[in-house]
UniProtKB/TrEMBL annotation:
Belongs to the binding-protein-dependent transport system permease family. SUPFAM superfamilies: MetI-like. Residues 93-304 form the ABC transmembrane type-1 domain. It is found in: Cell membrane. Keywords: Cell membrane, Membrane, Transmembrane, Transmembrane helix, Transport. It comes from Paenibacillus odorifer. Its main location: membrane. InterPro entries: MetI-like (IPR000515), MetI-like_sf (IPR035906). This is Sugar ABC transporter permease.
């Protein structure tokens, strides 16, 4: 007779113990892997910016040798002196600030008003107008027609050429309209019962509840207006007092890159290119220009970040 081999059975208690050990072990593995991954992601994200700061504070002639990573090898502020050597950059800075603030405020208010109008189901032309705005996202007249349009509107060599063309954005309108669609209709209905008109409903109910999406849109609009320089080159290049910071920095970078071919050209500050760029190079100037242009946005971003996720209408209506 063949002997039967008995397989020992694990007790239910031991199986439950193993499951508990696995449950306790899995969070540790996930947390460890997640922490390592996020640290690597932070390093990869921050390294280019930290390297740019290091290059901006390093001597230009030494930067050519390479090997600058996270710390300057030869400390200097000559790069920033070259950036701020021209007196026109200060006026350009305030022009950029005024342009950014005014464009952001007008874009938010007018685009939100348009989005609220097109979100009303009782408005019979909302689909047709939305279709027209969407078309502008796919088709553009081009640079030359836009130039003649600005000329016919008498906006050339005017500060308002920076503001009026960007007062309404089709993409931002769609984003805000989608957000307004998530608001409870009972909020608007209760305001109508209290006798409020559409404009009062927009100002007192809809606009405050749209703060999270408006903060996100405001950051997009502000960054776009702050970084814009091509319109200054096209529309206001003959008016030095209307030059923007980005346009002045672009001209500085171009003059630095061309200084090797013509080092004796005067830069308008009483100093020749040879004396100004004796200790700077295009690489170091580019790093300093990048930092100067980025600092204002970096200072504003932390105040806008809290609105990205949190919605003020959460919990306002329970149905």
């Amino acid at each position: 007779m063949e002997k039967t081999q008995l397989i020992p059975q694990k007790s239910p208690k031991s199986n439950a113990g193993n499951r508990m050990k696995n449950l306790r072990f899995e969070p540790v593995v996930f947390s460890t892997f997640n922490t390592i991954f996020m640290v690597c992601l932070v390093i990869v994200t921050l390294y280019p910016f930290l390297n740019t700061i290091a290059v901006s504070f390093n001597a230009g002639n030494d930067t050519i040798r390479g090997g600058i990573y996270l710390w300057p090898r030869e400390w200097t502020i000559q790069n920033y002196k070259a950036v701020f050597a021209s007196g026109t950059i200060y006026n350009a800075f305030w022009i950029s600030v005024a342009r950014t603030v005014i464009s952001t405020i007008l874009n938010l208010f007018l685009t939100t008003m348009l989005a609220y109008t097109l979100s009303r189901k009782e408005y019979v032309f909302r689909k047709h107008i939305t279709f027209i705005f969407v078309l502008t996202m796919y088709f553009s007249a081009g640079l030359i027609p836009n130039y003649f349009l600005m000329k016919d509107l008498h906006l050339l060599n005017s500060f308002w050429v920076y503001v009026i063309p960007s007062m309404v954005s089709a993409f931002n309108m769609i984003v805000i309209r989608t957000y307004i669609g998530t608001l409870h209709e009972s909020l608007m209905e209760s305001a109508r019962i209290d006798g409020a008109g559409e404009f009062k409903i927009f100002m007192k109910v809809v606009f405050p509840l749209c703060k999270p999406v408006l903060a996100t849109i405001a950051l997009f609009v502000a960054v776009g207006a702050w970084n814009q320089w091509f319109d200054a080159f096209i529309y206001t290049s003959s008016r030095q007092n209307l030059s923007t910071l980005q346009y002045e920095l672009m001209k500085l970078l171009s003059s630095t890159m061309n200084s090797n071919s013509n080092p004796s050209v005067n830069n308008g500050t009483g100093m020749t290119q040879e004396s100004v760029h004796a200790m700077v190079t295009p690489i170091s100037i580019r790093a300093a220009v990048t930092i100067v242009a980025s600092v204002p946005i970096l200072l504003v971003y932390p105040f806008m970040q809290k609105y990205f996720v949190v919605g003020l209408n959460v919990g306002s209506v329970k149905e």
